[in-house]
Inverse folding.
């Protein structure tokens, strides 16, 4: 049969395989993306243009910031026949002649991929993908000009990507004097790409640039495209510094995967695992490394179970040891046996490793005292003899553990039945030292319990787990040397044990200096710069960790003013890059929808979903590794830790919004009340004067009182002027009053001051008026003086001025 | 008709009230008006007059709120209207006041409902201590009537009329005018006054000649009695020294009718002294009559039960008699109408029920 089959394989099966093999060849990464443009965000002409802008601008921002230069970036889109030309120019440090072709003409070439540091780009795909897209659609090369800071001349390249080899193909390579080059700044990079595109995504393009301006208040951007009458400028916020420099961090033990770990094990220069952990990972010192190693030992070697010395005087530990030692002198032997026996008896339980250690210590001590030498054979014999005694009744030791771990409903027979069977498993487990891993122990308990169950005794999962945990806790980590780095690197299973040990150990969260949040202050400034609203709030959370990568969430809200009413606008950012597409698939959107916005004063139809109102909500997630739902980096994945932080950040900002809206509402109500009463009460006063036949009464005092107002009133009696401030509100008010006079006043009290400005005298007075009380300012001025009073420090709605 | 003196007093009081608001404004105070709280928790029994009057709790109408300010604005407009009305010696009905406010130049001052204008007039009555009759404000005719051996003289706008309430009137009886103080009692042959809730029962008594046979003045209350009806009842009792009894349905709402005749109503407790007849006694239908005469009944609705329970807490009904009757009715879970007596024959009420009840009460 075998031979027949092989013949058949040679004649026919082999033929097919060869035939297939002819068609099989490696595909270059460039070729792959040529077919899968959509994965990188180049799925349509409209979107391709936006993505190309985005990639070029992200690159420009990263380059300038890294060089400590405040970014000045111009984006220009020109119509050129059936195509569009995109030109992005920055004032960055420039790129050296050797690097230019690789940076722009080779996919997956970049400085970022291996760094654990917050940055916009990561894979080194973006800009070269844009180059690829332009060459595929227009057939024209990308034109790159770059001039480094110290260079006298600029480098000019025209290049395309060879999709077969993923290598740049340089068509023009020249050095150009500053005068001839198109690059306007004295240093920086300019890229020009012609591509098939359309401007249907103009709104997204504008959003992208505007949103970029919001989160990069330190950058100046200029956008010009055919639809604009003149270039649109996005100015820098005055005083906005470059983002804090981030530091690259080593990976966190909780954030690596098995493949990465094996690769790191292979590459490290460390010899020991402890050294490897401390060298290659962040937040691992000697202590943490030891914790990881112990967890690793438990997984790799298993723990040892320890047993108590028998209380039963008939099985004498001392005698057994005594018997096992030969030729060491009666006294020395007796002392040795007695001391070992004493030590063991005083211990709750002793493992094989601990026993060996005790025997060694006592043997050394006694040997020294009696001038005898306890050789290794003697020691081994003693250990063996003592171990035999310790392990003579395992069930007696296991019984209390099982009893404590199980519920009181388990009767004595069940408990002792399980303890008995478990003891058998240790005995027959194949390791005389009674070692077992957690999984092995679980197996012991399962098998023991299954036996009980087969005898119609119930022993469920919870009870089993409890017993396993109780016994595992009683077991001790062994002191064995862990395998060396080299050995682990070669053995996938052992490496996986190490990885589990790393994940299980509690380790401090990674440091956060690898992140650069925008900061609440600049989020607010950025929003103020780009949105004309009445109110702004922002919040920056503390750093948190997901899967070993630290992250920070920031939120900002703008409300009112010129903002459009309707569904609230949500601006999403990851590492300072605006996310323009796939809003619905983004974790930020999900979180915003789950928040009860009515609590915060925004309308929300049905109590969930996107809120309504003239508002903009922005969310920024900064991380060394932002988890996106896809390669095109449009939407943040739903990671619970990140979602929690997003929610907290939004709520923090929303609380400010709420108090603003509440205050605004109460002011509106007050204004409305003032309007209505301001109409009704004079009419009432008129009617009363008609009925009583008296002149119309002055109702200002009553009005001020009703509105809990602060009233400022002037009484003039000849040359004496008195300003009376009455506070009808329920708290102390501190109005800042400036009385502007056309003549010089005199007899001013001490708490008021006067300044002469070109024939006008400014009297300032800042009294503190407790609730319900009034204060007066009296001075003298010539009778024909004119007055003009100005009051600050009290909200307009609360102020009644009659002076 | 009220006298010239009364008119002047009323006018003066109204202007005083306006002046009070004026002075409050001038003093920089918030204009306000304190009036007794008009709820059942704020009525107290007045030992001197034996009627229920308002207690010490007051509510303040103040211009501090938009609502309060509107009320006071309306009050100012209404004061002006009333003062002018008195000046010109005209009168108007409450309903006319409501519609009339539509003509005021100020929309804020116009009334939104007649309840609002009625309440405002009551407020002004209380604060000025002048009755609305003296403001020349009258309700719509309630249509309540008298029938019995009574001769009286009424001052009408068209001169004095002398009327005998049996001989000079038709089957419908003598219609009580809006201001019964314009009536002088001349002569009578009445033994007792019987106030009847429903028109059907009044007609039955008249048809059966009950007024003639027992020398009884039948007063038709027409549901919750109007002020005029209560006022004339009180005058009949006080001036002619006649016993007054009240005959209504056997349900919680009817007990309140009795309550307002005897003790005064909660809404007009400020006038109790002038309107209430504390000596008036309740004939029935009593809950115990339902059992005793085995009357056809209806089950109590939820609202009836609530009303009964609320009456248990009403200070006006805090007597042993009423507590017992109301608790009995709550046990029975039944109510009966006056007409239920017809189940025992049309003459049963005049021949058996009333004579039995009235003799046991010592009226006959």
């Amino acid at each position: 049969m075998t031979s027949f089959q092989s013949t058949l394989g040679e004649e026919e099966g082999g033929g097919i395989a060869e035939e297939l093999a002819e068609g099989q060849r490696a595909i270059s990464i460039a070729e792959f993306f040529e077919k899968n443009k959509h994965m990188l965000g180049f799925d349509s002409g409209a979107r391709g243009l936006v993505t190309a802008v985005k990639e070029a601008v992200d690159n420009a921002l990263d380059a300038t910031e890294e060089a400590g230069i405040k970014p000045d970036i111009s984006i220009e889109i020109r119509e050129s026949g059936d195509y569009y030309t995109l030109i992005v120019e920055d004032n960055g440090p420039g790129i050296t002649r050797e690097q230019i072709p690789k940076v722009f003409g080779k996919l997956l070439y970049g400085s970022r991929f291996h760094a654990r540091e917050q940055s916009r780009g990561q894979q080194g795909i973006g800009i070269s993908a844009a180059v690829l897209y332009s060459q595929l659609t227009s057939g024209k090369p990308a034109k790159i000009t770059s001039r480094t800071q110290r260079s006298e001349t600029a480098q000019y390249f025209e290049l395309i990507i060879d999709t077969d080899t993923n290598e740049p193909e340089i068509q023009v390579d020249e050095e150009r004097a500053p005068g001839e080059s198109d690059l306007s700044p004295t240093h920086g990079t300019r890229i020009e790409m012609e591509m098939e595109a359309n401007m249907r995504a103009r709104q997204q393009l504008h959003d992208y640039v505007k949103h970029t301006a919001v989160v990069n208040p330190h950058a100046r951007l200029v956008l010009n495209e055919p639809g604009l009458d003149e270039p649109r400028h996005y100015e820098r916020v005055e005083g906005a510094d470059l983002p804090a420099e981030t530091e690259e961090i080593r990976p966190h033990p909780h954030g690596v995967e098995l493949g990465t770990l094996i690769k790191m094990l292979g590459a490290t220069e460390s010899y020991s695992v402890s050294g490897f952990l401390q060298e290659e990972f962040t937040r691992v010192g000697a202590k943490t490394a030891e914790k990881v190693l112990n967890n690793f030992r438990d997984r790799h070697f298993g723990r040892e179970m320890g047993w108590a010395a028998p209380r039963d005087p008939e099985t004498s530990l001392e005698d057994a040891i005594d018997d096992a030692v030969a030729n060491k002198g009666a006294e020395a032997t007796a002392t040795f046996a007695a001391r070992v026996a004493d030590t063991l008896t005083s211990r709750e339980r002793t493992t094989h490793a601990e026993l060996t250690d005790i025997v060694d210590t006592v043997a050394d001590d006694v040997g020294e005292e009696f001038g005898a030498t306890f050789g290794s054979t003697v020691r081994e014999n003693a250990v063996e003899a003592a171990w035999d005694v310790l392990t003579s009744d395992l069930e007696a030791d296991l019984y209390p553990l099982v009893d404590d771990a199980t519920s009181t409903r388990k009767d004595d027979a069940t408990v002792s039945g399980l303890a008995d069977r478990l003891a058998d498993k240790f005995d027959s487990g194949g390791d005389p030292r009674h070692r077992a891993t957690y999984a092995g122990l679980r197996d012991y308990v399962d098998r023991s319990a299954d036996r009980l169950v087969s005898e119609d005794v119930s022993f469920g999962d919870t009870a089993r787990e409890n017993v396993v945990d109780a016994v595992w806790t009683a077991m001790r980590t062994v002191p064995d040397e862990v395998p060396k780095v080299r050995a682990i690197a070669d053995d996938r299973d052992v490496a996986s044990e190490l990885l589990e040990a790393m994940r299980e150990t509690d380790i401090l969260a990674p440091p956060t200096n690898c992140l650069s949040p925008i900061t609440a202050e600049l989020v607010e400034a950025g929003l103020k710069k780009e949105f004309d609203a009445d109110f702004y709030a922002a919040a920056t959370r503390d750093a948190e960790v997901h899967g070993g990568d630290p992250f920070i969430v920031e939120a900002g809200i703008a409300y009112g003013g010129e903002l459009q009413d309707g569904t609230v606008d949500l601006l999403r950012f990851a590492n300072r890059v605006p996310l323009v597409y796939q809003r619905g698939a983004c974790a930020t959107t999900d979180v915003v929808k789950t928040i009860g916005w009515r609590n915060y004063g925004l309308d929300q139809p049905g109590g969930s979903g996107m809120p309504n109102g003239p508002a903009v909500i922005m969310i920024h997630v900064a991380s060394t590794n932002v988890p996106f739902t896809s390669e095109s980096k449009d939407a943040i994945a739903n990671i619970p830790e990140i979602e929690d932080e997003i929610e907290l950040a939004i709520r923090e900002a929303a609380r400010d919004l709420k108090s603003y809206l509440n205050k605004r509402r109460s002011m509106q109500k007050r204004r409305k009340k003032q309007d209505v009463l301001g109409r009704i009460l004079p009419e009432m006063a008129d009617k009363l004067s008609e009925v009583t036949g008296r002149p119309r009464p002055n109702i200002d005092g009553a009005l001020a009182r009703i509105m809990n107002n602060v009233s400022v009133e002037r009484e003039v009696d000849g040359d004496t002027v008195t300003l009376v401030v009455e506070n009808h509100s329920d708290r102390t008010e501190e109005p800042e009053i400036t009385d502007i006079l056309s003549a010089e006043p005199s007899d001013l009290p001490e708490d008021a001051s006067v300044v002469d400005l070109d024939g006008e005298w400014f009297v300032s007075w800042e009294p503190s008026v407790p609730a319900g009380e009034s204060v007066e300012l009296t001075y003298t001025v010539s009778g024909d003086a004119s007055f003009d009073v100005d009051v600050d420090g009290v909200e307009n709605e609360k102020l009644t001025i009659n002076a | 008709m009220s006298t010239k003196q009364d008119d002047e007093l009323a006018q003066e009081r109204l202007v005083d009230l306006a002046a009070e608001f004026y002075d409050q404004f001038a003093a920089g105070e918030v204009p306000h008006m304190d009036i007794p709280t008009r709820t059942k928790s704020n009525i107290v029994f007045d030992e001197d007059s034996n009627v229920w009057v308002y207690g010490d709790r007051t509510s303040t109408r103040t211009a501090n709120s938009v609502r309060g300010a509107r009320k006071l604005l309306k009050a100012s407009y209404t004061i002006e209207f009333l003062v002018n009305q008195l000046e010109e010696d005209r009168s108007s009905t409450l309903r006319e006041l409501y519609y009339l406010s539509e003509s005021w130049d100020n929309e804020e001052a116009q009334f939104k409902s007649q309840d609002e204008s009625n309440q405002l007039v009551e407020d002004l009555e209380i604060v000025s201590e002048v009755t609305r009759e003296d403001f020349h404000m009258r309700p719509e005719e309630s249509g309540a009537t008298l029938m019995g051996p009574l001769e009286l003289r009424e001052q009408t706008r068209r001169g004095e009329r002398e009327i005998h309430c049996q001989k000079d009137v038709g089957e419908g009886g003598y219609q009580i005018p809006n201001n019964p103080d314009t009536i002088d009692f001349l002569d009578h042959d009445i033994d007792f006054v019987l106030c009847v809730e429903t028109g059907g029962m009044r007609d039955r008594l008249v048809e059966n000649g009950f007024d003639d046979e027992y020398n009884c003045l039948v007063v038709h209350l027409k549901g919750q009695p109007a002020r005029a009806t209560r006022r004339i009842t009180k005058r009949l009792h006080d001036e002619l020294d006649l016993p007054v009894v009240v005959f209504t349905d056997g349900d919680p709402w009817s007990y309140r009718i009795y309550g307002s005749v005897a003790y005064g109503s909660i809404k007009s407790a400020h006038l109790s002294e002038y309107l209430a007849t504390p000596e008036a006694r309740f004939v029935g239908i009593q809950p115990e009559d339902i059992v005793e005469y085995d009357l056809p009944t209806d089950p109590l609705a939820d609202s009836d039960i609530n009303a009964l329970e609320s009456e248990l807490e009403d200070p006006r009904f805090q007597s042993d008699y009423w507590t017992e009757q109301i608790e009995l009715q709550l046990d029975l879970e039944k109510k009966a109408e006056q007409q239920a007596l017809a189940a025992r024959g049309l003459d049963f009420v005049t021949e058996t029920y009333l004579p039995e009840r009235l003799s046991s009460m010592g009226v006959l």
About this structure: Confidence is low (pLDDT under 50) at residues 1-13 of chain A.
